[in-house]
Amino acid sequence: PTAMKQLAVVQFFSWFALFSMWIYTTSAVTRHIYGATDATSAAYNEGADWVSLLFAVYNGIAAVVAIGLPWLAKRTSRRFTHMVCLVIGGLSLISIYFLGNPDLLLLPMIGIGIAWASILSMPYAMLAGALPADKMGYYMGVFNFFIVIPQIVAATILGFIVGYFFDGLAIYALIVGGASMILAGVLSLRVEDEE
């Protein structure tokens, strides 16, 4: 279905952003904010522990935000809701570059949690209306390829990009991820969604 093809592209860039975040946030935060590159140092471990807490925060935010997404989608549209959430998440990822205080990293986690809530729900809500009922399971299974494919792509090229273009500075992987998430948000407006 056309909507599935359009959503597949949105999913690709959304999940590419997530994998860049999951792979590089610890090294980005420990070096960029804590100034630590030695994984055995106290500063590095303090930064890594803080990242673990930050990830718990964005998951908690997502659980709360997910309750309100249907309300927003009903008053606007699922496409618009998904776009807004992804743009907020992308800007939040990019904002980590500009924050020097570890405590302030809680703010981008709110935005990332908003995006995460939408990524886990809105594409499937849009897709469900576009699929024939007798092939729903098949198409949903194929659709999940667009979670796996960006993971493979991120694992394959991000290390090269960070090493070759960004001199090994992982913070730039988060900026690339943020830009990817914003692109996914813009592309979500193209999805033919039958409410």
What is the strand and helix layout of this fold?
Layout: H1 2-32, H2 42-75, H3 78-95, H4 106-119, H5 122-128, H6 136-143, H7 145-165, H8 171-188
Q: How much helix, percentage-wise, in residues?
A: over 70%
Low-confidence stretches: none
At CATH level 3, the topology is Growth Hormone, Chain: A
Q: How many whole angstroms does the radius of gyration measure?
A: 17 Å
Percent of sequence in beta strands: under 5%
N- to C-terminal distance: 15 Å
Quaternary class = single chain
The backbone outline, from C-alpha atoms, is globular
Largest beta-sheet details:
none
Query: What is the N-to-C order of secondary-structure elements (H for helix, E for strand)?
Result: HHHHHHHH
- CATH architecture verdict: Up-down Bundle
- Overall residue-averaged pLDDT value: 94
The tally of domains stands at 1
Number of strands: 0
The top level CATH class name: Mainly Alpha
What does this protein look like?
The chain is 77% helix and 0% strand. It has 195 residues and is mainly alpha-helical. α1 packs antiparallel against α2, α1 runs antiparallel to α8 and α3 runs antiparallel to α8. The protein has a single domain, classed as Up-down Bundle (Growth Hormone, Chain: A). It contains eight helices and no strands. The radius of gyration is 17 Å and the shape is globular. It starts with a helix and ends in a 7-residue tail after the last helix.
